[in-house]
Write a structure and sequence with these properties.
Layout: E1 5-9, H1 14-22, H2 24-33, E2 36-39, H3 44-54, H4 59-72, H5 79-83, H6 87-91, H7 97-112, H8 116-120, H9 125-133, H10 140-149, H11 162-172, H12 179-186, H13 193-205, H14 212-221
Antiparallel strand pairs: 1-2
Helix pairs in contact: 1-2, 2-13, 2-14, 3-4, 3-7, 9-10, 11-13
Amino acid sequence: MESKKDIYYGVLSPEIQYLCKADGRLAVIIDHYGDLEYGIHADHFRVFVDNIIGQMLSNKVAEIIAGRMEELCGGDISCSRILALDFEKIRAIGLSRSKTEYILGFAEFINDNPGFFQELGQLPEAEVLSRLTSIRGIGNWTAKMYLIFSLNKLDVLPYEDGAFLQVYKWLYKTEEVSAKSIIKRCKPWSPYSSLAARYLYCALDNNLMGDEALNVMLERKGR
């Protein structure tokens, strides 16, 4: 899903400098990558449809199925279009029965609660997580992706996310990825955990893990 890049944090901004001072290994990534620029996803309903589709799937497969959903909806993935679709037609694009139920159930919920997304935007992270995960089919991963990429909440640690874990293991030279261990190691990131996580995503998207010079710099940092 495309989003306009309208949020910018320069490497000298207080938030990024805070992260550099808090975590020397993360600072190597920040210095190598540079300024952080990104957009947020404004179509909140579609974000959830895409994220439900993407649960436990590779990005490539998720994008293919999301494209089929868009085609099925005539380019308009909205509550009304989803609710007008036949259950089996939705399943036929490559979704499991449970995911089809989750998407239809969420569409019904938003149709009955049109002010839901606006309400979420006014709440702290913990309350948003609590409200979202009370809805069938929405777990911590889906809720955290929404917090980071749609609400732009700055202190979210997405340790449930496979892409995040892939870079985390490389950055810290560890196979220990329990929630407890990640929360402990990344505690210095707070209150800018989301910005730190974005740098890890940037490292993956730009193949920084394969950069020989960067790996040498990280080796010099030790563990």
